[in-house]
Amino acid sequence: MSSHSTLRPLFACALVLVFTACGTAPGVPKPGPEVPRPDQVLVFATLYSQNCAACHGAEGKLGAAISLANPVYVAAAGVANIQRVTAGGVPGTMMPPFATAAGGMLTPQQIDILAQGIVTAWGNAGELQGQTLPSYTNTATGDPAQGQKSFATFCSRCHRADSLTDPAYLSLISNQGLRSIIIAGEPQQGMPDWRSCLTGAGARAMTEQEITDIVAWLASKRPPNPRQP
User: Fold this and answer.
1) Does the global pTM surpass 0.70?
2) 144-220 adopts what CATH topology?
């Protein structure tokens, strides 16, 4: 038997040992960490950054949509409303439905994690201690004429009427969006909540009816077909 014949089995064994030690053959990339399927992501920070941050801001504020990092908004909305809006979206606005049952990509468990995470991250149970919040959703009929008067009393100090009655603006925001902003304010933008819009002598919070009337007046200025030019 030649020396070459003797070396072949030894060489083959050496290759097996090398490949076993390396875990893969030369030129074949090592497998990376397993990437979870979208429906397996159950971490609030990841779910929020992937689904919410683009509109509501990376830290829940300073986005194009309402700030979620606002304890007044969190208290007014509560977990149930945040779940409902996340799941079903807001028809006629840029807020889409995220629930799989409505054509979105999030499971009920993921929507619950998002809602609970928003309340945990940005809520503050002591923010409104001893105070009565206006209801999150409208519970009465609004009077546009009275709403115009209330707007002049509470809002005109900072907002020109024509800036908020702009058809382009009203076409992009729902009545609930208007109500939420009036109740919760936009603290990062310097807009106070419903308690502090009136200053000076006789300062007081808006009543539930005044909020409802202002929304009714603004809504009356919305174009009949807001998606049309």
Assistant:
1) yes
2) Cytochrome Bc1 Complex; Chain D, domain 2 (1.10.760)
